């Protein structure tokens, strides 16, 4: 299947089956904003839960935090975001469309050969939606010389606190959750008796007024991030960086992403964020752009804590009991977007088998773990027994009921949303108190005793 076809199918499935809806759709939408539907919110919650389990619950030295989205504007001056959280913006002199310079360059470079071939009579190049948006002008293709020189554009959304809209009330929607962690560093050290190295983890919304949006959930203006700030001794930072690189790659693999679709990419010096001494991305092989960032891992050094110490006048150093010295720790930061995780997981899990679509999500990520059906909806005795099984299972697992259409269609509908198991109550169930349990991937059906339903499902789900 062509890669642009695949992403179209995924966008359509996401809408049709209640994973992702365009934001404010009835008013024509709003650029770069999506809403999670009933199944999308389950998938996102499951991703966040496995991240939290891996990062916080399974470690002795990581604690959680939930800081506010709105912060004192001094935070963003101190962190360097007001000055440095900028993208180079270019504008076409003919059609006045504006783009991120690096996005335009990446797409143009990738398609340059095709344009040359096309202008020499080699047919029209096939472009993805994003490529059409960025590369095509009203009368041809955007050439590098068509643009005005780059101007720096700050990505933070401005807002005001209180009724008066002047400079003194101005602040920003946070573009990263990390600053909430840095400003609470002293509070956590004082209250949790944490010892270096230790981490503070946070999941929350970030907002960026991206110049060029697109590729569905890949680049949006409001998104959730899963961030860990891992504080460590400066001399240990490089080793911890390597440690977290491996940990994060192992985590993505544990979610079921294919190894061949993941790789690391080290940032060149001119690509790194203003706070980072080293950055390595975990990249995914996206169908719409080939390799691109799924998660960023950065060595932020002591930059943020030092800046906040300096600008707030509060000492954010840490007294190291081991060396009896006061130090400002270094920070290693793995930071991943929930939306990009969802998108990569759906793409990787998407399979077609004839006209059957199967979302081969790992059971722990699937929105529903089990579906319960009566074989026939017009047989009250089957419906009654199936309903009693459903009522019981839904207290223990995310469970869905379906009695519409024929049984084959119901199986297919569950396959498409990734439900790993379907339980069907049939006529034999009435006689011997067994039901069939069907496996999404193999389509094999086994009979289990109704009384063993919970233990059987627990075993299968693990
Ligand atoms: N605190 C570090 C930080 O913000 P980042 O690489 O800019 O790092 C972290 O963002 C992650 O957030 C990315 O790896 C990506 O998964 C996600 N992300 C960033 N910008 C995004 C956007 N505009 N739309 C969707 N996800 C985004």
From TrEMBL:
EC numbers: 6.1.1.14
Family membership noted in the UniProt record: Belongs to the class-II aminoacyl-tRNA synthetase family.
Catalytically driven reaction(s): tRNA(Gly) + glycine + ATP = glycyl-tRNA(Gly) + AMP + diphosphate
NCBIfam families in the cross-refs: glyS_dimeric, PRK04173.1
Function of the molecule: Catalyzes the attachment of glycine to tRNA(Gly).
Pfam families: HGTP_anticodon, tRNA-synt_2b
Annotated Gene3D superfamilies: Anticodon-binding domain, Bira Bifunctional Protein, Domain 2
Protein name: Glycine--tRNA ligase
Chain positions recorded as ATP binding sites: 208-210, 218-223, 293-294, 337-340
Assembly and oligomerization: Homodimer.
Location (main, coarse): cytoplasm
Domain Aminoacyl-transfer RNA synthetases class-II family profile: 8-363
Highest taxon above the source species: Bacteria
Signal peptide: none
Alphabetical keyword list: Aminoacyl-tRNA synthetase, ATP-binding, Cytoplasm, Ligase, Nucleotide-binding, Protein biosynthesis
Native source species: Candidatus Woykebacteria bacterium RBG_13_40_15
Lineage: Bacteria, Candidatus Woykeibacteriota
């Amino acid at each position: 299947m062509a890669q642009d076809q695949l992403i179209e199918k995924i966008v359509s499935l996401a809408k049709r089956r209640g994973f992702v809806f365009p934001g404010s759709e009835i008013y024509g939408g709003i650029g770069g904003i999506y809403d999670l539907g009933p199944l999308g919110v389950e998938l996102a919650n499951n991703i966040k839960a496995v991240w939290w389990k891996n990062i916080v619950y399974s470690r002795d030295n990581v604690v959680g935090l939930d800081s506010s989205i709105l912060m004192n504007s001094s935070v963003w001056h101190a962190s360097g975001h007001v000055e440095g959280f900028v993208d180079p913006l270019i504008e076409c002199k003919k059609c006045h469309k504006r783009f991120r310079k690096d996005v335009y360059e990446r797409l143009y470079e990738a398609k340059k050969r095709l344009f040359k071939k096309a202008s020499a009579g080699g047919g029209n190049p096939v472009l993805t939606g994003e490529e059409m948006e960025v590369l095509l002008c009203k009368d041809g293709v955007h050439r590098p010389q068509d643009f005005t020189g780059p101007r720096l554009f700050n990505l933070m959304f401005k807002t005001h606190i209180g009724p008066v809209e002047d400079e003194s009330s101005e602040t920003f929607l946070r573009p990263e959750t990390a600053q909430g962690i840095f400003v609470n560093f002293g509070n956590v050290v004082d209250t949790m008796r944490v010892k270096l190295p230790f981490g503070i983890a946070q999941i929350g919304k970030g907002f960026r007024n991206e110049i060029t949006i697109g590729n569905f959930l890949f680049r949006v203006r409001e998104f959730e991030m899963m961030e860990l700030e891992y504080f460590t001794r400066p001399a240990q930072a490089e080793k911890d960086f390597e440690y977290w690189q491996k940990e994060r790659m192992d985590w993505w693999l544990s979610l079921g992403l294919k190894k061949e679709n993941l790789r690391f990419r080290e940032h060149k010096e001119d690509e790194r964020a203003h706070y980072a001494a080293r950055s390595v991305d975990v990249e995914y092989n996206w169908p719409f752009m080939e390799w691109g960032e799924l998660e960023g891992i950065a060595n932020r050094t002591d930059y943020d804590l030092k800046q906040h110490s300096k600008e707030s006048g509060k000492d954010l150093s840490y007294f190291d009991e081991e060396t009896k010295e006061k130090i400002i720790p270094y920070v290693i930061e793995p930071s991943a977007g929930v939306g990009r995780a969802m998108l990569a997981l759906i793409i990787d899990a998407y399979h077609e088998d004839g006209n059957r679509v199967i979302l081969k999500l790992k059971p722990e990520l699937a929105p529903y773990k089990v579906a319960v059906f009566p074989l026939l909806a017009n047989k009250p005795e089957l419906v009654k027994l199936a309903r009693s099984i459903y009522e019981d299972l839904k207290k223990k697992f995310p469970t869905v009921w379906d009695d519409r259409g024929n049984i084959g269609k119901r199986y297919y509908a569950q396959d498409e949303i990734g439900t790993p198991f379907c339980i069907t109550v049939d006529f034999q169930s009435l006689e011997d108190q067994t039901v069939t349990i069907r496996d999404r991937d193999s389509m094999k059906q086994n009979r289990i005793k109704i009384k063993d339903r919970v233990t059987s499902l627990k075993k299968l789900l693990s």
